[in-house]
Amino acid sequence: MDMQGQSIVSIRDFSKDKIKAIVDKALEVKQGRWSNALNGKVLATLFFEPSTRTRLSFEAAMNGMGGRVIGFADPNVSSAKKGETLGDTIKTVTGYVDAIVIRHPVEGAARLASEVANVPVINAGDGSNQHPTQTFLDLVTIQEEFGRLEGLKIGLMGDLKYGRTVHSLAMALSLFGSQLVFVSPPGLRMPEHLCDELNSAGTKFSEADDLESLDQVLDVLYVTRIQKERFADLLEYERVAGAYRIKPETLSGNCQQARIMHPLPRVNEIAEEVDDMPNAIYFRQAHNGVPTRQALLGLVTGAIQ
Ligand code: NCD
Contact 120/300 with Cβ under 8 angstroms? Predict the structure, then answer.
């Protein structure tokens, strides 16, 4: 697979076959093939928003395969604080490294960065828009659990309005014939333009206010945090905060067998008692961030074919 030089900005830029091939590559990497493939490569991680898993798993991915990392985890220690434009920052950093990972609050920031950089740019989240590498690790986890990506019944629950992880994931799942159920408080529904896209792709989806009103058995329940930082009005946030919480007793009926996934961090959407249940796979999911990002970094730098 030749992806050398390619940026990873939106899941929409990937065909079904390409996504499948990347998932398979990540599983190959996880099995220990391609060790040290990133030897001599340098990655820049430019995080203009908080992160634990995404940034650290990119770092672990590079370190684990012989690569190195430079970057910042807080824009206040970068020249953005002095008023430098994103374009100028990228035009500079592109000369230091083999690839750039960027997380930024502005939708479209990663696309802009990819247009001015001479090296591949990987979107680690741009506002409420997209988080494609999270989707790849989500799909790797689903493939491991079910042995397939096709034809699963998947509930996406929580903040479907502002959650970039569910925006990317829904787009990807629509390529694999998933039946989707969107479970959210009415004010946090999946944006209309994304529902329109799903409709034109012929993807079946339904919407529900809560799990009690679910009328089908789920294979996966993908839970998300309410994205407090995206609310213009904190009173709005207070109205929906704590609207739903997965407890051991939730995992009955249509959700009895459902694998519980979550991009993390969780705030209070999943009770800690759920962690020990066989349904809970969210920490395993987080760990898949390393081989998945190794595969992606290897592919875009040409170190892995
Ligand atoms: C998510 C994000 O940043 O969009 N976190 C992650 O990358 N795993 C989800 C979130 O912050 O709620």
Answer: yes
Give the residue-averaged pLDDT of 99-111: 98
- Alpha carbon 236 to its chain centroid, in Å, reads 25
Residue 201's CB is within 10 A of a number of other CB atoms, namely 10
Please indicate whether the domains covering 11-129+289-301 and 133-286 agree at the CATH topology level: yes
Ordered by start, the domain boundaries in the chain are 11-129+289-301, 133-286
Q: CA-to-CA distance for 28 and 295, rounded, in angstroms?
A: 9
Tens-place pLDDT, residues 41-55:
999 999 999 999 999
- Amino acid in position 99: A
Q: Give CATH superfamily name and number for 133-286.
A: Aspartate/ornithine carbamoyltransferase (3.40.50.1370)
Do 116 and 92 meet the contact criterion of CB atoms below 8 Å apart?
no
pLDDT score of 19: 98
Segment 223-263, tens digit of pLDDT: 999 999 999 999 999 999 988 999 999 999 999 999 999 99
Centre of ligand 1 from the C-alpha of residue 135, in Å: 11
Active site residues: 53-54, 82, 103, 131
For residue 103, give the ligand 1 atom closest to its CA: 3
How remote is the CA of residue 225 from the centroid of ligand 1, in Å? Answer: 8
Domain 11-129+289-301, what architecture?
A: 3-Layer(aba) Sandwich (3.40)
Beta-strand runs (E) in the chain: 42-47, 68-72, 99-104, 121-126, 153-157, 179-183, 204-208, 220-223, 259-261
- Report how far Cα 187 is from the mean position of its chain's Cα atoms: 22
What is the predicted pLDDT for the residue at 231?
Answer: 96
